[in-house]
Amino acid sequence: MRSYDPSMEGRMHPKAPKRPMSAFLLFCQEYRPQLRADHPNLSLVQESRRLGAIWCGLSKKEYQRFANLAAQLRKKYHKDVKKYKKAAKKISLRRERVAGKWRREEEEEDSYNSEESMDD
User: Fold this and answer.
1) Which of 5, 13, 45, 58 is the most buried (most CB within 10 A)?
2) Mean pLDDT by 10 residues, the chain (120 residues)
3) What is the dihedral of CA 64, 68, 69, 72, to 10 degrees?
4) Full-model pTM
5) How far is CA 88 from its chain centroid?
6) Which residues of 85-114 are buried (b: 16+ CB within 10 A; e: fewer)?
7) Are residues 87 and 17 in contact, defined by beta-carbon separation less than 8 angstroms?
8) pLDDT for position 87
């Protein structure tokens, strides 16, 4: 809890590496512009359904191409995460200041509580 930052709740650190796209998302990124050009009047839902149907009908060779690309991106992501975590061990000044402040408050509370117990 010492490193908790309420302003970052629900969000990743801005400099943290982003998760890689899946094979399906890579496929959609490549095929969606072509599908939109061929069928400009499709709604987003209809477009997604067609992309899903095309994805299910892909040959093993085409599927493997996207799977390999996704695997390469995952490897790169895991390397980047390791680098990021290594760098994150060096506590940022903001967290250090907040954590230091919390530590001081805890120490003051402890000394205050011990003084009360002496009076009893």
Assistant:
1) 58
2) 60 82 97 95 96 96 97 96 81 52 47 45
3) 170
4) 0.64
5) 15
6) eeeeeeeeeeeeebeeeeeeeeeeeeeeee
7) no
8) 79
State the sign of the Cα–Cα–Cα–Cα dihedral 26, 36, 43, 60. negative
What is each CA distance from 114 to 9, 20, 102, 108, in whole angstroms?
A: 35, 52, 18, 10
Residue with tokens 């967290």: 95
Residue 57 exposure: Cα atoms within 13 Å on the Cβ side: 6
- In this structure, the number of other CB atoms found within 10 A of the CB of residue 120 comes to 4
Q: What pLDDT, on the 0 to 100 scale, is given for residue 85?
A: 84
Q: Please enumerate in sequence order all residues whose Cβ is within 8 A of that of 17, keeping only pairs 6 or more positions apart, or say none.
A: 77, 80, 81, 84
